Amino acid sequence: MDQLRITGGKRLNGDIAISGAKNAALPILCAGLLTAGDLELSNVPGLHDVKTILKILAQTGLTVQRDGDKVILNGSKIDTLEAPYELVKTMRASILVLGPLLARFGEAKVSLPGGCAIGSRPVDQHIMGLRALGADITIEGGYIYARCARLKGARIVTDMITVTGTENLLMAATLAEGETILENAAREPEVTDLANLLVKMGAKIEGIGTDRLVIQGVPALHGAQHAVISDRIEAATFLCAVAATGGEIQLLNTRTDIMDVALDKLREVGLQLTVGHNTIRARMDGRPKPVTFRTTEYPGFPTDMQAQFMAVNTIADGPSRVTETIFENRFMHVQEMNRLGANIQTEGNNAFIKGVDRLIGAPVMATDLRASASLVIAGMAAEGITIIDRIYHLDRGYDRMEVKLSAVGADVVRISDKD
Questions:
Q1: Distance (Å, whole) CA 205 – CA 175
Q2: What is the pTM of this model?
Q3: pLDDT tens, 275-302?
Q4: Which of 30, 116, 148, 240 is catalytic?
Q5: Phi/psi at 305 (nearest 5 deg)?
Q6: CB 293 within 8 A of CB 310
Q7: Could you report the per-residue pLDDT of 179-205, keeping only the tens digit for each?
């Protein structure tokens, strides 16, 4: 398996172009199952998870053409209504094929998904919602079997806010007969991006961007063109990197209007920010200030930024507390950061960090996607050399991170097992 070798202590200087958002691209690609027309997408990031979802879609018979960050999908020849275990096992977002296949073709067979080991986040909300729309669903041998001649609109109130659940039910409802109301819907920008695409495809959706979505089902959807929104998590990760190392960077192709909470916390850290329409210039001099925060659903502090901010807190001038409310196992990076000399103690869903004067490079292991990014940040802030193992997690959600960081002065080298 590939590793990253990081020599710390380098200040960052230069421009970084932000890629399309992973969490928007995955459901948007699955929307290609909803139509026989061409779905022409741009700003699609070059991620392992994107490659996986495209493999899943292609094996259904969906035609996939890719050229750089552009993808053209055509669903006129879909003949396999299944997502098999060997493809689904590595990624929880693969459940997003269930709603579209069921809505358009009346049946689907989807393996129960896998993904990062950061918590259970079961698919029961997806199943409950689809049953409310009239689907007959059974789970057998690790597969979800769903059937319904045509879904019928219903009022659905999920027990919890679920991003992928909202996306799955939203896509299914676009082709259901009558009106569907999704209460307690996720408000994340990536959900909004999917909804905006569906409207371009002919869906009738009201309440986009709110926690109450009203969908009037239509008989069919058509093709469309759409650019995936830029990745707010990638952007905030690079801002945490410069906050930890010092220097000055400019982010290009950003969506600053969906990053308010993260930007406010970065200002608390001491990062000097100049925010433009789609650019962010960030300068850091001196040691970070500690920040205390609690993760919650959008528009609150994103759980996907918890580990990266914790990395900054490890070298901050003072104590801080981090409370994780979304995933029950999302502190697995703590023991790895402590290997670098951090002082972090956990108690339930709280982490208590005492900032130290310096971190020291050491071998560490990535346990999930965002944990891997946090270890890159900590490694760049540490003295000496840090080796990060199992970086396939990083490739699931960051498009050539080591290349982008190296271009602005970091000493980050990929060590391939093929070398």
A1: 12
A2: 0.95
A3: 998 999 999 999 999 999 999 999 999 9
A4: 116
A5: -110, 0
A6: no
A7: 999 999 999 999 999 999 999 999 999
